[in-house]
Specification:
alpha+beta
Length: 277
């Protein structure tokens, strides 16, 4: 039952109601209902005369905006209006684990390079694919410490969020928006590192590319998913469009991968020959 501030008017909701009476109270119109095993959100339960057997009398108080809360059964768990798909937390967990693994391997490689500076690393394949060349560059520690440490800590965030979602946790709008900003910063950072690796350092790092491959879908698909759920913007047209596009959101990361591959092949024209020779 939902009641409006208009005296004598109540509009029914899809919940089982056995009887409805009206009462007056200083400060506004009230609806007194007898609802089997149901309650009204934000209502006060009282023992009123005239209720039917097996029912719970409810006094619905006037809510903000002149409306009352919708009735529900507290004994039955109802799904969230925007049910979170299982694929969303799986994406967060898988991408987070891949990014964490790549970042952790980079930290290990950095440690081995410090221990044995003259020894080649396991990912030093050829002059074009060389972890040590990238790790020794100034770009690899922009903030005074190795960049992979940021990844080791940062990729725990999507892993934790995904695990919490699978456990049934829900988060506020500001939380999702903040997470999206964080994923965007991660994507912008790896894009910058990619340009530095290709155009400045002139070498590729396999573990770095693994981190890139995890960050790209994490940002793009998560952004589309956020927009489809009415976050980041309240524009209904955007939300509708993103809901329709969500099953095809993998196309954006694929395009991002293709752009990276084209740039690498163009900048290192002999790379494929060296790799497959």
């Amino acid at each position: 039952m939902r009641c409006r501030s208009t005296p004598g008017r109540c509009e029914s909701l899809p919940c089982e109601i056995s009887s409805v009476t009206r009462a007056a109270r200083p400060g506004g119109n009230l609806c007194v209902t007898s609802v089997p095993t149901a309650t009204v959100i934000g209502a006060t339960v009282g023992n009123l005369p005239g209720s039917h057997p097996g029912t719970v009398p409810i006094i619905a108080r006037k809510a903000s905006g002149g409306r009352f809360g919708a009735c529900h059964n507290p004994r039955v768990s109802s799904p969230s209006p925007a049910r979170v798909r299982v694929l969303a937390p799986i994406l967060l967990i898988v991408a987070g684990l891949i990014g964490f693994f790549g970042s952790f391997k980079l930290v290990v490689e950095k440690y081995e390079l410090l221990e044995h500076p003259n020894q080649a690393l396991g990912c030093d394949i050829n002059p074009f694919v060389s972890c040590s060349t990238v790790i020794d560059s100034t770009v690899s520690h922009l903030f005074g410490f190795p960049n992979p440490i940021i990844g080791v800590a940062g990729f725990m965030i999507p892993i934790t969020i995904g695990a919490a979602m699978l456990a049934g946790a829900t988060f506020s709008r500001w939380f999702w928006n903040a997470a999206n900003v964080g994923f965007f910063l991660a994507w912008a950072f790896i894009t910058f590192l990619f340009t530095q690796t290709v155009f400045v350092i002139g070498a590729l790092c396999p573990w770095c590319m693994l981190v890139w491959s995890a960050t790209i879908p994490l940002f793009w698909i998560f952004t589309v998913w956020n927009l489809a759920n009415g976050r980041l913007t309240k524009n209904q047209r955007v939300r509708t469009a993103m809901r329709a596009f969500l099953p095809f959101s993998w196309v954006i990361p694929l395009v991002n991968y293709a752009v990276i591959a084209i740039i690498i092949i163009t900048h290192f024209p002999t790379l494929l020959t060296v790799l497959f020779s």
